[in-house]
Amino acid sequence: MSIADRLVLQRQRHLKWQALDRLELVLMMLCGALCFGFSLSVTADIVTRTIGHPWLWLQEVTSTLFIYAIFVGAAVATRRNDHLCLTAISEATHGAVRSLLEIVLRLVVLGVALCLIWFGYINFLRGFGSFRLPSGTPIASLYIVIPISGALIALFTIEQMVNGIANGFDHPEPPDPEPANPLPYTAADRSYQT
Asked: Which pTM value belongs to this model?
C-alpha cells in the first residue's frame, strides 16, 4: 500500500471525484509538514529561551504555521467529511429525509466557505496596512490562507453535494478489513478473557 493510498481516505467514495484525490493527498502532506514545522519551531523557541538567547522571529514562524495548519486542515477535513458537518444527525436517518438533511448541512457549510472567501479576502487586503514585529512582514501574509481555505472548502462541499444528489448520500460503508496476521492467543491471554 503506497503513501497515497494511506493518506487519501477511501471512506464515502461515492461522494468524491477521483480527480480531486491528488489535491487531498497534497493537502494531507502539507498538513503534516505544517504540524511538524509548528512542533519544531515551538521546541526551538523553548530551547533558545531556556539557554538565554531567544530568537524572537520564532514566534512569528510558530503563529504562521499554526494558522496555516488550522485552515488547510479545515479544508482537507471537509473533503474527508470529518469536520464542519453534523453527520450524527443525518446518519440517523435514511431515504429522502437523509438527502434533505445532507443537502441542508452542506449548504450551511457552503455558506461558511463563502464567508471565509469574502471576509478573508477583505482581511487580506487590509492586512497590508499592519505589520508583524520584529520582521516587519505585512499581516496579510497570515490572512491569505483564509480565502484559499474557503475556496477549497467550497469546492469539496460542492463535490459532495453533486455526487450525493447523483449517487445518493446513504451508502453503507464496507467493513474494515481484518488484520493480515492476527497475533495468536497464548494461554495467558485466554486466562484474562474468562
From this structure: 0.81
**φ and ψ at 138, to 5 degrees?**
-60, 145
Inter-CA distances, 2 with 5, 163, 182, Å: 5, 26, 22
Copy the grid coordinates of residue 106: 452542506
Cell numbers 531556556: residue: 50
Distance between CA 84 and CA 153 in Å, rounded?
A: 9
Residue pair 105/85 in contact (Cβ under 8 Å)? The answer is yes
Cell of 174: 464496507
- For each successive 10 residues of the chain (194 residues), what is the average pLDDT? 72 83 93 96 95 92 96 93 66 80 91 97 95 90 96 96 88 61 58 54
CB 148 within 8 Å of CB 71: yes
For the chain, how big is the Rg over CA atoms in Å?
22
